[in-house]
């Protein structure tokens, strides 16, 4: 299985009362578009796209141009364990792209790779791509990239 974690792009300043409604900034829209175009070329056709209900995540995933499903388990107040379960890691046959938040995505990454929850940082609009093959038994890092280097990856 492939698990692709995509952190939402830069959003408006934090407002605790309206956190789910925060929109992307113009810079965030540019970064989401750059990463979305690259991901659309690289993701398997059968990839499931799961997104947090937060506006900034939905705006980020819309730059991908693919169908997606809003999943409450990916909300900012969720847990790394709930995200892993929603993705079906590592047994689901289809790859999963998760569009979500920090520190949750960093925690998912550390749990999947090391078996311990730590606050690893994924940059805004950045992608952490993990793959697990049953024949290998161990997950491995396929790619880690931010929007600033995506243009250099063809």
Low-pLDDT windows of residues: none
Main beta sheet: 6 strands, mixed
- Domain module count: 1
Count of helical regions: 5
3D architecture notes:
It is a single chain. The protein has one domain: Phosphoglycerate mutase-like (Rossmann fold), CATH 3.40.50.1240. It is globular. The chain has five helices and six strands. Strands 3-2-4-1-5-6 form a six-stranded mixed sheet. Strand 5 (127-132) and strand 6 (139-145) form a beta hairpin. It has 154 residues and is α/β, with parallel strands linked by helices. The two termini are 23 Å apart. Helix content is 31%, strand content 19%.
Considering the chains and any ligands shown, give keywords for the structure.
single chain; 154 residues; alpha/beta; Rossmann fold; 6-stranded mixed β-sheet; 5 helices; 6 strands; 19% strand
Précis, in short:
By secondary structure, the chain is of the alpha/beta class.
């Amino acid at each position: 299985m492939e698990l692709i974690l995509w952190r939402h792009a830069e959003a408006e300043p934090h407002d605790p009362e309206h956190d789910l409604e925060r929109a992307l900034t113009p810079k965030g829209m540019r970064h989401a578009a750059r990463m979305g175009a690259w991901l659309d070329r690289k993701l398997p056709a059968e990839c499931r796209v799961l997104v947090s209900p937060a506006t900034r995540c939905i705006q980020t995933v819309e730059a991908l141009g693919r169908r997606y499903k809003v999943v409450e388990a990916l909300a900012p107040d969720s847990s790394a364990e709930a995200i892993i379960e929603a993705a079906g890691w590592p047994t689901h046959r289809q790859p999963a792209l998760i569009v979500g938040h920090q520190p949750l995505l960093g925690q998912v990454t550390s749990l999947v790779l090391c078996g311990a929850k730590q606050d690893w940082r994924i940059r805004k609009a950045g992608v952490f791509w993990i793959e697990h093959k049953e024949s290998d038994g161990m997950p491995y890092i396929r790619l880690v990239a931010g929007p600033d280097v995506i243009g250099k990856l063809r």
